[in-house]
Amino acid sequence: MSLLSVRNLVIDYARTRALDGADLEVAQGETVGLVGESGSGKSTLGSAVGRLLPRAARRTEGEVTVAGEPVFDLPDARLRHLRRKHLGFVFQDPIGSLDPTMRVGDQLKLVLGRGGDVRFHLGRVRLDDPRVLRAYPHQLSGGMAQRVAIAMAMATSPELLVADEPTAALDSQVREEVSNVIFSLAAEAGTSILWLSHDLPAVARRCDRVAVMYGGRVVESGPAREVLGNPAHPYTAALAGSAPAAAAHGVRLEPVPGRPPVLTGASPGCAFAPRCAFAEERCEHERPAPVRIREQDVLCHRAADLQDELTKHEEVSA
Amino acid sequence: ATGTTTTPTAAAQETAAPGYLAVADEALAKGGALNLQVHIDSGAATGYDPQLADVATTWQLLSLSYETLVTVGPDFSVQPLLAEKWDTPDDRTYVFHLRKGVTFSNGRAMTADDVVGSLKRLLASKGVWAGQLGPVEEVVKDGDDQVKVTLKEPYTPFLASLANVPAAILPMKEIDDKSVDPATTLLGTGPYVVDNHRQDVSWTFKRNEKYWNQGKPAADTLNITIAPEEAARIAALQNGSAALATLGNVDSGTMLAGAKDVKVVTQATTDFYYLMLNSLKPGSKLADPKVRQAINIALDTKQIAEVALGGKGKPTAVTPAGLPGSCDPAALPSAAKSVDEAKQLLAEAGAQNLSFTLTIFNTEPAPAVAQVIQQNLQQAGITVKIEQMDEASWSGKVYGKAPAEFDAALSWFAGYADPGMVTKWWNPETAGFNVGFMKPDPELNKLIDTANKLTGDREKALADVCAKADADAQMIPLVTRPATVAYRGDQLSPSLYATEGYGNVLRLVADARVKKSQ
Amino acid sequence: MSAGGLAVLAVLVLFALGSLAGAGGDPDAIVGPRLQPPGPGWWLGTDNLGRSVLPRVMEGVGTTLLLSSIAVLLTAVLSAAFGILAGYRGGYLNELVMRLVEVLYSFPAIVLAILVAAVLGPGQTAALASIVLVTIPLMTRLVRGAAVAVSQRDYVTSAVISGARLPRVLVRHVLPNVAGTIAVQGTYALSVGIAVEGGLSFLGFGVQPPQASLGVLIQQGGTYMIAAPWLILGPGVVLVAAILAINVVGDGLRDRLEPRETRSLT
Amino acid sequence: MRLLMWWSGRALSSAATLLGVSVLIFAAVRLMPGGFAETVLGPFATAGQKAELAARYGLDQPVFMQYGHWLGAVAGGDFGVSMISRQPVGAELLARLPVTAELTVLAVAASVLLGVPLGVLTAVRARPDGGGAAGRLLSGLGVSVPEFVLGSLVVFVFSRYALGLEVGTWTPLTQDPAANLATMILPAAVLSVFSISVTARTTRDAVMGVLVEPYVTAAVGRGESPWFIVRHHILRNAATPVVTLIGTTTAYLLGGALIVEHVFNLPGVGSYIVQAVGRRDYAVVQAGVLLAAGVFIVMNVLIDLLVGVIDPRLGVMAGRRS
Amino acid sequence: MILELDDVTVTFAAGPPFRRIHLDAMRRVSLQVAEGETLGLVGESGSGKTTTSRVALGLQRPTSGTVRFDGRPFPKRRRELAGRMQAVLQHPHWSLNPRMRVGQSVAEPLDVLGRTERNAVTEMLEHVGLGADFADRYPHELSGGQRQRVSIARALVTRPGFIVFDEAVSALDVSVQVQILNLIKDLQAEYGFSALFISHDLGAVRYVADRIAVMRGGEVVETADTRTFYTAPAHEYSKQLLEAL
Ligand SMILES: Nc1ncnc2c1ncn2[C@@H]1O[C@H](COP(=O)(O)OP(=O)(O)OP(=O)(O)O)[C@@H](O)[C@H]1O
Ligand SMILES: Nc1ncnc2c1ncn2[C@@H]1O[C@H](COP(=O)(O)OP(=O)(O)OP(=O)(O)O)[C@@H](O)[C@H]1O
Ligand SMILES: [Mg+2]
Ligand SMILES: [Mg+2]
Hints:
Helix content of chain C is 73%, strand content 0%. By secondary structure, chain C is mainly α. Chain D has helices at residues 2-31, 36-41, 47-56, 63-75, 89-125, 133-144, 147-160, 177-211, 214-221, 226-264, 269-279, 282-310.
């Protein structure tokens, strides 16, 4: 049984539908990358895993289970226990995720409890500078702060770490280091990772599996290499082809045309249809059901027909 | 706080004698502390010097420590105090026989020199009261315990004027040798001595152990709290933290109705409100006597008394209503005339659309009086704009410049204890403070002097003064100003006159018996 | 909730307009015996001068609302001018404005109001000036803060790069974007204004008799709380309702202009 | 060293503010119509007397000279002499300060002890659909009832019915602390209603702001209990605006204290100033307002320091990287 | 040369008086941008890129060194340059005045010049791929990418000779980034403006720039042709940067 299982999750905000029936599985010890355009629902899904959504969010349908426990139906005390025992979170804003009024050492102590060895936990994220202990978060660089946040999230050795774009706010050089820390620490502890990111090359390099989100659904998931190298969904293909860093000099990139959707209710058909070069009539009003293409689970009516078409697009350099 | 508690006897009910609102029950034990609240402290640049004091509240506080040669009784009769008796060999001479055994609170016995010195000092002072003593020619010692005062001409209010605090007998020896400054120290022959004073907060008086009048004062201590806000005084009365308080609102009785053990009495006073019409302001229509008469006619003093003072005040002429010998306000020429005649007069003066500003201070009930005046005059087609200000700004505007800048203003005079005394203020040359807005009227001045010189029956002469002032109408007397006093029947048995001439609620405080105190 | 607030305000404004139109009767006329409880001819009773309370309350609402609205409008204009200029220009100008604001801020509000009333003489002008002086420091501070933030926005820089002159930048870019702050703060200032007017009248520095304002009526009614509770009831309820309604509308306005997320701790 | 610099900077700007206040108050007092002489000497005084009095208090000199003399004296700790009581103003202010201070301190304490929990509670309970309206209405009501209305009501109710607390009297703290407290509770309660409401509101806003901060989400994600999060993360982070508010509320409370003192007849600084304005007792008004402003300024300097301690990002000692 | 920075140093004083810290945001920077050329400026956060752009735009006066725009030093009055240089700035959310309609925002540079060519605005909106009907919208009705397009339209409406793009695409989604970068390239081909393109994203810079300058700690450590730079970086720091890509 998988550690995390999201089934047909629908989350609504006051005026927008953020998740429109998302499905996702994360197995024990697995690292999964969750990619997609801004607004596709990555953060909402990541927060839903720990029921950390803002008050404005409402679960309309579906279910999230972590280690077999239904997250949305647990009483508060059990939920807290579940979070403590099974989950860890790292967010995008490194300095913001630390309490600005408390010294780093004190915050760690608070998390670790009386017996905790603060130095050890800092050492694990390669921060053995004793000055860090006495520093306030705003006195740290982004990379250092993020490592402290990681140490705090990993302190209880959770079974699943949800990392919501943990490196997006960092300089490109620091990104590498921080990613390394997370992945090596998780590997050591046998922790699964749900890695939310924009950064396709990084995900391709580090994750076992990738889930691609579009319009509040996971439209394609499967082994990282396969999904990004041989996309089965037209959107994945378009996304993979539009990273500037992937372009060779002088080559013109082809962006995904049009605008990402903003849903107010259930999408009648495939949410990508208006932007899809391969869309046909039924895509507009028939919600695609998951199909299996090679090793991928894909939400596309035409996935089977397009197999050859899509592989012609260039590969993502890993 | 401590205090003696006495069990009220059957006779403990105050039975008010004629001229009294309440008479202290002598059967009650003496001693104890009396908690009083008044709305304003004494406060003058001149300090505590009684001779310079010109405000009734100051007189009231100083009267606890100072005494005069004579005092007034319940019916305004002049009665002995520091003078045991006096002779009037002729109508210009007064010989006072001083009481024996009177000492100042420092223990020194009062002498005839103190009396002579005090009166001379008063006459030489710039205080307002110097003028009220009348045409004094000389003050001399007549033996060790007699003092003789000679007047230049007869002056009927003389004795009454000696009965007020500015004429108090001061310790002249100490003042002359500068060991005592009366501006900063109270040292008199009166029943109480000051224990403590915090300006605008409180006074504490202790009984004068050397007081000449054996057995007085009854209460050992007076705690006087200054409480400007009426509601605070009412609250203190209700919860018993004050045994007696002065109240400003004419409806206080209604408001305290039903409050347990609280008695509210209205003490009539000779003080009265009057309207000043500035006849000296350049270009002002009010310079025309016809216009002023029209205003006087249009004023409905009965309505002012009924509405603004809740029926507690009485219409008055220049001689304060309630004093023996004062004139009847209903008999004034203006009282008989109708609003139409007022309109007629205005038309004659070419002032049909008369409009002026009435400057008042914001202490109740002045604003109420002003608003009724406004309604009165509206009947005659006169528009009154009310300009209300704090007392300081008001005095600045009314007395600050000559000629004064206001159109009309509202104020009140203390009425004193003789009907002739206050009429002197209608002569700006004597009064001085009103030269800025008032033209002297020689005829009126003569009438005033004549009335005050008459020793016998002066009613006719006073009536002439009233009628002349009514026609002159530069200062129009309106209504008397009642004083409301409330006290706790379970804590106190006070003595109170039915009518007061010098605004002194505490006049008989030395008689008051404390039943219990908090 | 803010719809309710608006409704209350609308009723009060109708009240005030009714008074201007003479509805309810002459507020100054002596119409009956003193201190009568509500009854025909005087639906809210009579006061200590035998005047009908109803037209007086109506006039009072008008006086108070008009006075405070004008004052707050003045405050808004002055604060906008000084706050925006100081916030945008910074430097010595900013220092000067902020120091002045600080000076005003250091005066206890009601003392400031009393001083103004004492200097100008009591009356509408003094009440107006007092409200302005009492409300201006906070408003200027907040406007300045908002202006500083707006000045750093890219669209302002773009306008400068395009060669826009100072007035254009301030009027077209900064002002509209601090207007929300001004509006929200304005509603709070309005309620402060009403309270200041009331306080001044309470201490005897308010509008001139016989004109009624809520503060005057409450001050007079307060002394008659026992004998004639209807004197304070009407104006008291209206005053509290007015301030409450304005605050509620202000809250609503703020929620609309600066919607905020909420999160539960469970 | 940095602290010293900060202090000197603050001292300088505080002095500038105080100087501004002194100029303004001096000017205001001189601009008041109605001469001091008329007021204290009464209508019967002669021109000579008035002139003599003016000379005694130096009021016949040019205003700039008067200001200079006054400022010099004040700098030397001499606030002059009351023209009414002829007592030193400084001593009288000092004697009255405890009353106002006690009132203000009690009101501030009530604001913190009641307003902060109320604000935290309503914030934690707040719903995006405008829920918690009752709490908001309540605090709205608090800011809507002016002191003079509430004060009059309280004075009336408590004097009419024996409810255990007295109004209309006052006992000095030094004389009988228990009795003093009994006389101060009601005035302080009346004074604090407004500031409790404002504090509750500000706290609510501040807490709501903190609630959506990532570090709170992170703490929730770690499975901490709400109480734990409130205690360790929210209170301190939401404290800055609340503490700042308390600083600015002081000026308000000092003003409110004036009305409360008036209504309850307490001998505090506020009633002193009001009476002095009424009588044009220049020295008292000047000293009183200067004192109030000084207290306010000092209070705000302390608040700034405190804020720095609470939030190291804003502090004096906040450096860049350690 | 449309823009020449010669030996420019910018020093900021920060901190309280008496204890000011002096910080060189730019140290002896020399850069040129030729007519029609796009110069890419890369470097880590705080390296001085934005300061350089502000100097180039005349918003920041150099502490020392000289700046020449179009061969002349900056005039005293900004207005003389109105319409000749423009900028597209980082934050799509704040790049447009939320109280102004898109059409008004785009028209502003024309208004400043006193020109009122309404069709120039719609034409320009069409050019950046937005329909004329966008003119009536408010910024909050637009997506981030659309907002940056409006900014670009505003920058181009006066046909300036020089445009600064300071992190103009950093805040955008990858797929939108490419749209904007393509747009810049296309418009540059059409209008031939010179550009200073600032980004910490080397991928984006490689995509649009002809030449690249690398900043670190306020100094320019390397300037090179784009192709040369990406194939054979000279400076050690440049190599580090490229590794992370
Ligand atoms: N608190 C909120 N209130 C209302 N709508 C929200 C809220 N948070 C997110 N949304 C909406 O939900 C949708 C999904 O948002 P989400 O933050 O999950 O996307 P994302 O994929 O994480 O995007 P990004 O890459 O920008 O972080 C978007 O349309 C967004 O506007
Ligand atoms: N107005 C200023 N006052 C003081 N210091 C400043 C100012 N502007 C910039 N600095 C400092 O100058 C240095 C360079 O800043 P600049 O904004 O130019 O960097 P940047 O390369 O654009 O960084 P980023 O990638 O974060 O935008 C930084 O250390 C910054 O803190
Ligand atoms: Mg996200
Ligand atoms: Mg920058």
